[in-house]
Design a protein that fits this description.
This protein is an alpha/beta fold. The chain contains 14 helices and 20 strands. It has two domains: about 180 residues, Leucine Aminopeptidase, subunit E, domain 1 (3-Layer(aba) Sandwich); about 300 residues, Zn peptidases (Aminopeptidase, 3-Layer(aba) Sandwich). Bound molecules: ligand BES, manganese (II) ion and zinc ion. Manganese (II) ion binds next to loops.
Length: about 500
């Protein structure tokens, strides 16, 4: 897809579709509104009068221009109430609009969204460009590797944006470039998650990580089972025991600021299939557990974007990958295992495997000298009970680190909500015979899972994002299509970019 910045009038540029936003409180009209309306014999204003719901958010109405201007269609794009518009809504609106344009078999479009700048000081032109491009690339994503007759939509070839001066042009180009990098990284994360589990094995994830390392010059280290033994990763090895697929521990290092000793760990849960193990899950919907590596995939996506954006900060990705399967060798409920940290763990459910592999990943990251940690994991069904499919759950041991994440997530639109780590909940994961047990029962399941990982994070500033409810979308919704959402990538990248400017947590 080409992105073209032009100083030509939108009425004469060689593009198929002009996207004209219409607000419910119609006070903010595009500067070209009257001209477009006049050329179309007053049709636009009369339609708005007769069918006021065409301004409700996401409502689309194509008007054919019948040779009155170069673009063949003016697509009225309902934009809702101007005062309720956000950058994330611009991202969603762009996705909805571009899907429609592709459905109508057109190839090029020009969104007339720059008038949004007047609505809110946050809507700088470069932010609008970024939201439009991200929305377009994310919203027209399709996964059709396994269809013998792919229903490939027509693809968009060109998006046009207007600009006024050379200085602005440079800023807008940079912003467009960044948006393309980030949105493609999210789509690659979606691919990793959408692939079936017999393909997306721990070895395949490791292979993909090595490909990223080669492309973006990361140091890479992939630990195999013997190296995990040497590193005493007993908790990770315990989960891997039931599977015939060899586990892999992926470690990628990006040194954007070699003079600094600061090092941020991005840790992602990489369970490539979670059957539950001996504590086996019900068969209904078990297929969805191919998504259990979505945290690991988000970290790989973030690294892909970081490798291209090259922020001035140091990042290490740590992704423990294994299947969780039942077998004669598998971990059993009742077993007591050790961990790299040395803490002993009584296994109550083999289905609480995520926290086990994360325990060793977090401890290993600390051993490697990280100064702050953020982990992303499809960790608990309880998080879906608490926050549904709208927001990811966050747990932390550090206020300042949380404030940074909160602010980054507000700017990306990936909704996050913090849950507490009150001392009192610790009671639930105390074991009679070991240091900890791996489940705390039904009440506050997301919190007790968080507390378990917090034990291993100890004093290192740590954030945990539970994406069990947000990693997957069961329907088309804004810039998400059905299937993997790639959640986490955009916020991790935003957070790392912000760290490149501010230090000191
Ligand atoms: N991967 C699951 C969590 C999950 C559930 C993610 C549904 C996405 C959708 C995790 O490994 C798990 O099985 N958690 C258990 C923990 C329980 C045994 C304490 C759960 O949530 O039921
Ligand atoms: Mn599980
Ligand atoms: Zn799991």
């Amino acid at each position: 897809m080409q992105i073209t910045f032009t100083q030509d009038s939108c009425l004469t540029i060689p593009c198929d579709v002009l996207i004209l936003p219409i607000f419910e409180d119609e006070t903010i009209l595009h500067p070209f509104f009257s001209e477009i309306d006049e050329l179309l014999n007053g049709h636009v204003s009369s339609i708005i009068k007769r069918a006021p719901d065409c301004s409700s958010f996401g409502h689309l109405l194509p008007l054919y221009t019948l040779g009155k201007m170069t673009p063949q269609v003016v697509l009225l794009a309902g934009s809702g109430k101007a005062k309720e518009l956000t950058l994330d809504k611009i991202r969603s609106l762009s996705a909805i609009v571009m899907r429609k344009i592709v459905d109508l078999h057109y190839h090029s479009a020009m969104p007339l969204f720059f008038s949004f700048e007047k609505i809110n000081s946050e809507f700088r032109l470069e932010k609008i460009v970024q939201a439009v491009i991200e929305g377009t690339i994310l919203g027209t994503y399709e996964f059709n590797y396994y269809k013998t007759e792919p229903q490939k939509l027509v693809s968009l070839t060109t998006i046009y944006f207007a600009y006024s001066d050379a200085l602005q042009h440079e800023t807008l180009l940079q912003s467009a470039n960044k948006a393309v990098i980030i949105a493609n990284a999210v789509n690659n994360t979606r691919n990793l998650v959408n692939h079936p589990p017999q393909y997306m094995t721990p070895s395949r994830m490791a292979q993909y990580a090595e490909h990223l390392a080669a492309q973006y010059h990361f140091d890479s280290q992939i630990l195999d089972q013997d190296q995990m033994k040497a590193e005493q990763m007993h908790a990770l090895l315990a989960v891997a025991r039931g599977s015939s697929e060899p586990p892999k521990m992926i470690i990628l290092t990006y040194k954007g600021d070699p003079d600094s000793s600061e090092l941020t760990a991005l840790i992602g849960k990489g369970i490539t299939f979670d059957s539950g193990g001996i504590s086996i899950k019900p068969s209904e919907n078990m297929c969805e557990m191919k998504d259990d590596m979505a945290g690991g995939a988000a970290v790989l996506g973030a690294m892909e974007a970081i490798g291209q954006l090259r922020p001035k900060t140091n990042v290490i990705a740590v992704i423990p990958c294994t299947e969780n399967m039942p077998s004669g060798n598998a971990l059993k409920p009742g077993d007591v295992i050790s961990s790299q940290k040395g803490s002993t763990i009584e296994i109550i459910s083999t289905d609480a495997e995520g926290r086990l592999i994360l325990a060793d990943a977090v401890n290993h990251a600390i051993k490697l000298g990280v100064t702050r940690i953020i982990d992303v994991a499809t960790l608990t069904g309880a998080c879906i009970t608490a926050l549904g499919n709208v927001a990811s759950g966050v747990l932390t041991n550090n206020e300042a680190w949380w404030e940074m994440l909160k602010s980054a997530s507000l700017s990306t639109g990936e909704k996050m909500w913090r849950l507490p780590l009150f001392e009192e909940y610790k009671e639930q994961i105390k074991s009679d015979i070991a240091d900890l047990k791996n489940t705390g029962g039904r009440p506050a399941g997301t919190i007790t899972a968080g507390l378990f990982i917090a034990h291993f994070a100890a004093n290192t500033p740590w954030l945990h994002i539970d994406i069990a409810g947000t990693a997957n979308s069961d329907k088309e919704n804004g810039y998400n299509v059905k299937g993997a959402s790639g959640v986490g990538v955009r916020t991790l990248v935003e957070l790392i970019q912000r760290l490149a400017h501010v230090h000191g947590i």
